Amino acid sequence: MNAKKKLEVVGKSRRRVDARAKVTGLARFADDLTLPRMLHCKLLRSPHPHAIIEAIDVDKARAYPGVHLVLTGKDFPVPFGIMPVAQDEYPLAPERVRYVGDPVAAVIARDEKTAEEALELIQVTYRPLPTIASPQEGLEQPETRIHDYGEQGNIHRNQSYEFGDVEAALAASDHVFEDVFFYEGNNHMAMEQQASLAHIEGDGKLTLSSSTQNPHYLHRQMARALQMPASQIRVIACQNGGGFGGKCDPAGHEIVVSKAALMLGRPVKICLTRQEVFYQHRGRHPILMKFRTGVSKDGKLTAVHLQTLLDGGAYGSHGPASTFYSGVLTPVTYELPRFKFEACRVFTNKPACGPKRGHGTPQPRFGQEVQLDKIAAKLGLDPAEMRLNMVTQADSLTANWLKIGSNGLAECIRQVVERSGWKDKHGKLPEGRGIGIACSTYMSGAGVSIYWNKMPHSGVQLLLDRSGQVTVMCGATEVGQGSDDVLAAIVAEVLGIDTSVVRCVTGDTGLTPVDLGSYSSRVTVMMGNAAMEAAGRVHELITAAAAEQLDTLPEQVVMSQGRVFAADNPNHGMSFVEAVVLAETKFGTLGAVGNYSPPKQPGKYKGSGVGPSPAYSFSACVVETEVDRATGMVHIPKIWVAHDIGRAINAVHARGQVIGGVYMGLSEALMEEQAFRRLPPKLSAALVHRIPSMLEYKTLTALDMPDVEVMLVEDPDPNCPFGAKEAGQGPLLPVMPAVANAIWDAVGVRIDEVPITPDKILRALVLKREGKTPRIGPESFPEVPYPESVFVLPPGEGGDGNESKNVSRPSAQSSQSSHSRMEVTAS
Amino acid sequence: MMRLPWFKYHAPRSVAEAAHILAAEGGDAMLIAGGTDLLPNMKRRQQTPATLVSLRQVEGLKRIANGKGLTLGAGLTLSEVVAAPQVREKYRGLWQAAAQVASPHLRNMGTLGGNLCLDTRCLYYNQNEDWRRAIDFCMKRDGQTCWVATRSKRCLAVSSTDTAPALISLGAKVRLISAEGERDLALNELYCNDGIDYLARRPDEILTEVMLPDLAGWKSTYWKLRRRGSFDFPLLGVAAAVRTAPDGTVEEARIVLGAVSSHPLLTEAGQLLVGGKLTDEAIAAVGKKAGAVAKPMDNADLDLYWRKDVVPEFIAYALRELRGDDMSETRMRVTRQLL
Fold first, then answer.
1. To probe the interface with A, which of B1, B128, B130 has the most A CB atoms within 10 Å?
2. How many domains does chain A divide into?
3. What is the pLDDT of residues A628-669, one digit of tens each?
4. Domain stop point among A568, A596, A624
5. Given CB 3.0 to 4.6 Å as the disulfide criterion, which of A669, B80, B164, B201 pairs with B76?
6. Chain B residue at shortest CA distance from A633
7. A113 lies within 8 A of chain B by CB
């Protein structure tokens, strides 16, 4: 694209390309699909939290009228899992169940009701085992192992990294703050429950249409679990009614219906109930965390020692990545010379946790941002100013070797401070009203694929023909976030056409080039860059052909607003369709491919693959609260959020994403809890989800949602298509700590855990009246047997990104060393 | 939830026909009006009636009759109750209660009679059958133990109707018709403090009407505690009605608490107000007395101690509103809507 033109599509507020279908009900979700001769599948799930399956008798169910097939664990000998190091799940549990809801058998019948009735005829003999309800219990009871793999006992993952001598830095700090926080687990609560339809095509190949964010990874795991060549399997990601990470893992039910369709030669469909979605889960990990943070007297960070303890639930899922993410992005927002990060994920007898919007990072972000608020209060600094004074810089390296490109955090802080009237409000509102600030960052795509390979992360193929239609194909998946719209917009911008000319074919492993999927906020950057490359190649062909006709140089040809013309004579030109005809005439059938791989990252130590990204987004958020001192009830009149998006591809849509993130963050801050219940142990061994229903698992309703003012900070990032970074996850992160900080400003109590419910605030207010520490939160952090640290010198200390094996670290032997100036900050 | 279980379905046209069918079907039959409570319960196998007798096509159940007082047909949807000007103008507590039941969609289906007969609720009971199997069921259905308090001899499921406390505070009666005849009952007498046998209505009786007395000189209100501005059942309902002399002296007062017991709790605290004015001190005393009898259990949303702690505060909201204080800001904060 030599002839520069102003952006015509990118950056504008447009109706998104899938809006009509979604609004009118034409969009086809997996549950909308039916096929002739289709059968229905229901799963039998374990009533025990932990048990050995001694016997399963399915004879009666098999003989039940209308039943076509009954499957059990025996039919699925090969385990699967999204991460190569955690393939610990079977579609149906073969010999052991690990949580209430673990699937053990499947009935395929003429309708759901018949299948349900037949499930009741299946006799399973269980031998119950001791159960583990929390990571603390898991550490204390290594002998009742939930899995026979992992680090030791019930520890699934255990790791320690140290970037520079943290103990020495803490010892030299003016202040050291030590705080423990807890972040409760929660579910994605996508509106659409998962559904899948498997059928056999006329050529004998298997097709699975499913609610999935990652058809490519699902494709691979299906080939593995079904022991079939991947070439015989096609996975179609249907329109998704939200994903938020809940549809990232390949799911057992997807493999079950595929197997059934193969065995029966008939279409087989399954639709999960809402309760089953809570069992499939893969939601936010509950995390207990401890921050020891060194600060200079002017409020600059000297070092952070972060310890996290993750409640993993019953299976690996994305756990190895989640464990890393509970710390690795901590140094990205503020200058932090040294950083130590220890993390441990423990198996428990509860549904598996996994990735949810922000994947592992909202929890430590909550802890860090609340702790900063305490530090500011203690040092008498303005929390916004303090943050502004230590934001990371553009084009810099963090202590853990993450490469930051563009960085609009300072501008985000300035804008929320300005728009919210922060300076007139913070510390100045009448008792009961308060205002709080917090910031965050997120990746625009994970720099490394989930399985090791050197192939592109995203591929895009364009097809054009003499009709003027432009078909763009990509494996990226529309989960409601607008990926199809981004794809169409980028192609349209490059080719100077309207998005209505572009047809998107996406998320279909049988038709589209591989894209890794809709996770890690990677789609706009990776698919977008691939689309730019493909469209650029087509642009070259068309301008070359048109230049001949226009009697000018290809570089002088402009494609704009559906026309192709010479830059110096805009009236002399042709329609886009005419130009395509010329190009097809000159070059033959028109098309191009493009692809994208993230840049190489500077970190070289083992484990450095988690955290790098082509670009980081930044956000700042101010929340205003009114706290009723008699009840502890919180009212939030308004939230301001500024998001450094690089550039908005579709401005109205980007704002929608930001508001959606704020909605989800506020809901987590105030009410969401994937909570479990044990009954009195003398009477029962039950360990059940407290509230697996949409009525009792609370999320904000429209009436509970405050006014949100969104500011998009646009500082285009050179690694990103038209400079556009992510918006899907980042803006959620600062909301929870900003709420906690605003409550402190309103009534002077600290709630160091999420969710922040009125009973906790009232209890803290009572403590305050009694002259005690007005804080509700975890009291202590347990002894965790973290391993010896991998020691890496930070960039500022002469490191090269590799592990330093023989560094003398006099203070590193004890992370719990007593510290004379250690302060607990809830005062 | 599962698919609905099999059941027989009758759609009578008259109360007499419905009563006749009920009498013939015996205890395995249940009435269905809007079905917003019963059908999900059936899908979770909490209730598994062999026969459903629908009231939707029964004539006369949507009657609104003015006379001395107001008569409301039990088949009126909650939306229809909310839309009735007589309710809004003269029985504000009922209007506010009905307007806060569930969500707009459910109010369009659910009926006044259905809300009065609403099954008691409990987090150990309002669960799908397989979940309840995982805890070996509970006393209310298929099991032995009340998991809320394992030594309890009775079921502690919670009365969760919004309209009943309001109507009791307004002195409402209900009419029950069976094949054997009809009887009128003070609404308060319709309820028993037992999570299983929570209604004094016999299985063969149909609740057809709600009769409200003329309440000239009375003012009423309803305050609902729940986590969110819509959708949720009450964690506490405070219905208050007072009759005052022109100088503000309270002549009669009724305070009824919902969702803190297995039945709507008609407190005696209202008596404290009689003969005096609605001063802050009097309101605080009433809150303390009424709060003491509220017994929230660990079987609903939010912390039970907190739910008990805030009862006096919610009673104060109600009484201050009746005194004439402008409570709109508090109302907006607490219930997310002006009522």
1. B130
2. 3
3. 999 999 999 999 999 999 999 999 999 999 999 999 999 999
4. A596
5. B80
6. B334
7. yes
The answer, for B284 touching chain A at a CB cutoff of 8 Å, is no
Q: What is the dihedral of CA A751, A757, A759, A762, to 10 degrees?
A: 50
Closest chain B residue by Cα to residue A44: B130
> Which of B2, B228, B313 is closest, CB to CB, to A698?
B228
**Which helix (H) or strand (E) is A387 found in, with range?**
helix A383-388
Domain co-membership, A474 together with A385: no
Query: Would B32 be classed as within a structural domain?
Result: no
Domain hosting B240: range is: 218-335
Report the domain count for chain B: 1
| A8 lies in some domain | no
Of A100, A684, A704, the CB nearest to B229: A704
Q: Are residues A680 and A790 in the same domain?
A: yes
Q: Residue A562: is its pLDDT beyond 60? A: yes
* Confidence band, pLDDT 50/70/90 cuts, at residue A821: very low
Residues with Cβ < 8 Å from A568, sequence gap 6 or more?
A552, A556
Same domain, A663 and A762: yes
In a domain, A819, yes or no: no
Q: What is the pTM of this model?
A: 0.97
Structural domain harbouring A65: 33-129+191-242+247-280
Number of A:B CB contacts under 8 A? 88
Q: How far is CA B171 from the centre of its chain?
A: 14
User: CA B78, B82, B83 angle in degrees (round to 5)?
Assistant: 115
Name every chain A residue with its beta carbon within 8 A of the beta carbon of B136: 684, 686
Instruction: Average the pLDDT over A239-250 and give the result.
Output: 97
Is the distance from CB of B212 to CB of B72 less than 8 angstroms? Answer: yes
User: Using H for helix, E for strand and C for coil, what is the string for A226-294?
Assistant: HCCCHHHEEEEECECCCCCCCCCCCCHHHHHHHHHHHHHCCCEEEECCHHHHHHHCCCECCEEEEEEEE
pLDDT in tens, B122-153: 999 999 999 999 999 999 999 999 999 999 99
ipTM metric: 0.97
CA A263, A264, A269, A274 torsion: positive or negative? negative
From residue A607, give the alpha-carbon distance in Å to each of A88, A287, A614, B95.
21, 20, 17, 62
Residues A532 and A547 in one domain: yes
Q: Three-class SS of residue B324? A: coil
A7/A10 Cα distance (integer angstroms): 6
Q: Is the pLDDT of residue A287 over 50?
A: yes
Half-sphere exposure of B185 (CA within 13 A, CB side): 19
Residue of B nearest to A631 (CA): B310
Domain presence at residue B301: yes
Which two tokens mark A145? 């192992």
Whether A692 has its CB under 8 Å from any CB of chain B: the answer is yes
Q: Do B227 and A630 touch (CB under 8 A)?
A: no
Q: Is the separation of the CB atoms in B291 and B268 below 8 Å?
A: no
Considering the domain architecture, whether residues A560 and A626 belong to the same structural domain is answered as no
CATH number at residue B320: 3.30.390.50
Q: CB–CB of B231 and A690 under 8 A?
A: no
Residue of A nearest to B316 (CA): A630
Q: With an 8 Å Cβ cutoff, are B123 and A626 in contact? A: no
CATH number, domain of A267, equals 3.90.1170.50
* Set of chain B residues whose Cβ sits within 8 Å of the Cβ of A271: none
Between chains, do A696 and B131 touch, taking CB under 8 Å as contact? Answer: no
Q: Are residues A294 and A363 in the same domain?
A: yes
Are residues A574 and A502 part of one domain? Answer: yes
Residue B257 lies inside a defined structural domain of this protein: yes
Residues A490 and A356 in one domain: no
Contact B131 A692 (CB under 8 A): yes
